[in-house]
Amino acid sequence: MIDLHTHTNKSDGTDSPRELVNKAISMGMKVLGVTDHDTTSSWQEAIDSVRGDISLALGSEISCLTDEGTSVHMLGLLFDGQHQEMQIMLEETRDGRLPRMRKMIEKMRAAGMDISMSDVEAARPAGATLGRPHLADALVNKGIIKSRDEAFQGMLNNDSVFYVSHAAPTPIEAIKMIRSAGGVAVIAHPLASLRGHSLDVSSFQELADAGLHGIEVDHRDQSPDERTMLRVIAQELGLVVTGASDYHGNGKLNSLGEFLTAPDQWEKLESLALERRVVRA
C-alpha cells in the first residue's frame, strides 16, 4: 500500500504526525507521503515515529495560483528540507493565509453569519498552517453548517461567493522550486470538479515542459471520466500516475489508503528525485 498525500495537525488534519504514522503502520502501509500544506513542520515527529517496514516520502502540498487566478495544489516530495529558498517560499505562502482568512470571514459576516477570527483560531491546533478546514470547523462549532464536507461542497468551494484566494507561487514556479530543492513535483487532484473551478487540460503540456514529474489521478474528488482523461494525459506526456487519499483525519470522508499509487509508478517517481531521501527505520 502506497499513499502519497496525507495531512496532520501541523496543517489542517486532525491526527498528530505520530498518530498518522501509527495508523499507516497498523494498516500495513509500505510508503506514506506526509504532505502538510505549505510546511515541513510535521517531518521530524513523523521520522521519529517510523518503525517496522514502513517508509516515509516526506513533502509538502504547496498552494499555487495560476495567472488566471485558479487555485492549484502541487505536491513536492523528497526535496531537501533544509533548502533555504524552498523554506522561504513556504513561509511566504503561509503568511498570505491570514489576510485571506480575514477577508472570507468579512464576507460571511456581511451575509449575516456569526463567525469571527477568534472562532477560527479556537478551531485551529497550535502551530498548524491556517486553512479553510479550520474555518469549516469553526462554522460547524457555531452550528452554521453540519460538517467539513458540507462546507467544501458549498460555502468554501472555489466557486463560492465567500472564496478568497491568497498570495502564492504559480504552479510553474512551484515546480521549479521543488526541482531546485532536489525533489519531485506531482500536481494534486488537478481536475477535481467537486472542489469547484479546476485546471484547464491545455495547461498540462506547459507544466510538463517546466519539469512536472507526475499527476495525481486517483482521488475521490475526481470523477471516473476525469481519472480516465488524466491517465491519457499522463501517458502522452510521459508522467508518473499516482493515487492518494488526501487524508485529513476526522471531519472529512477521505479514508487513509482509500486510493493508492502502484508500486512501479512509485519506484519511477522516487528514482527521479535528486537524492534518495525516503525515510526508513
Determine the strand fraction and express it as a percent band.
5-15%
User: How much is the average pLDDT?
Assistant: 94
How can the largest sheet be summarized?
8 strands, mixed
Q: Rounded to an integer, what's the Rg over CA atoms?
A: 18 Å
Assigned CATH class of the largest domain? Alpha Beta
Q: How many separate domains? A: 2
- How much helix, percentage-wise, in residues? 25-40%
- Supply the number of helical segments: 11
CATH architecture assignment name of the largest domain: Alpha-Beta Barrel
| Tally of strands | 8
Distance between the termini: 17 Å
Regions with pLDDT < 50 over 5+ consecutive residues? none
Structural class label: alpha/beta
CATH superfamily of the largest domain: Metal-dependent hydrolases
How would the global form be characterised? Answer: globular
Write the CATH fold name of the largest domain: TIM Barrel
State the order of secondary-structure elements, H for helix, E for strand.
Answer: EHEHEEHHHHHHEHEHEHE
* Oligomeric description of these chains: single chain
